[in-house]
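Q: Could you fold this chain for me?
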Amino acid sequence: MISFVVSRLLQAIPILILVSLIAFGIIYLIPGDAAVVIGGPSATPEELEQIRRNLGLDQPLHVQIATFYINLFKGDLGRSLTLGIPVMDALIARSPITIGIAIYSLVLTIVIGLSTGMLAALNHNRWIDQAATLFALLGVSLPNFWLSLVMIVLFSVMLGWLPTGGYIPFTQDPIGWLRTTTLPAAALALLQAGLLTRITRSTLLEVLNQDYIRTARAKGLPEWIVVGRHALANVMMPVVTMVGLVLSVLLSGSIVIESIFGIPGIGSLLGSAISNRDYPMIQGGLLFVTTALLLLNIVIDLLYTALDPRIRVKGR
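A: Sure. Below is the predicted structure, expressed as structure tokens.
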């Protein structure tokens, strides 16, 4: 198991190097002078020179690259141009908010997607199956920003059940946290639950037609044992794969969702950084999110080894 984890970590190193190069090159990809873009047309020459010094653009390119990687190995991602604080401190402070909403949304995705997909498979070609298929189709078709606005109008403006936005920390008020995070978590979850529904339905239908399932039924086992103990275990592999993809989408989609609902997480932080051309924050956020996704993929691989011993043998 240790060698399996080490091999996955070694495989992640080239990706991190590539992403770090992209992050370093972001400031050089913009047209014109980066200092002018950041400072604006009204910036004085002194202000532009100060911006160049703050970003290290007054140094030769090889010195900039060396400084970038030295600071990166130290965990120093620079200072935010708009917040005036270290980028790493801002990302760490905002990450619990984004992680909490992502976990909440993932729970909703799994509960809705698994239950709907199982109901559709167990009621194949019935109205429940047709309704679940329609739900899955809508889930993979609707953009999350549109669904967020519709949910705000319906549940906040018309019904008044939930607030239109804002955020209350869980440690301050758990009920308030639940009220302020339900709409954004549901907006993220419903779209991914549609895709999970389709995968669960198709996989379970295939498993239910296997010979060992027919044998289990022929022995007189109750249907819930046949499905829960024999069929569902073989459905979990594609579901685990889907969970990894869902978490990746949830983290990437948080920029739009958090901006719509006014949630002070990593998504809204990066969204404002892009709007304000806060390049140190953009660079640090790109590296931070990429590292989180790579670690997530390693965790998913470990879940694979727990579900399928053949993968564990190959990992050795």
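A (continued): Residues 91-315 form a domain with the MetI-like fold fold (CATH 1.10.3720.10).
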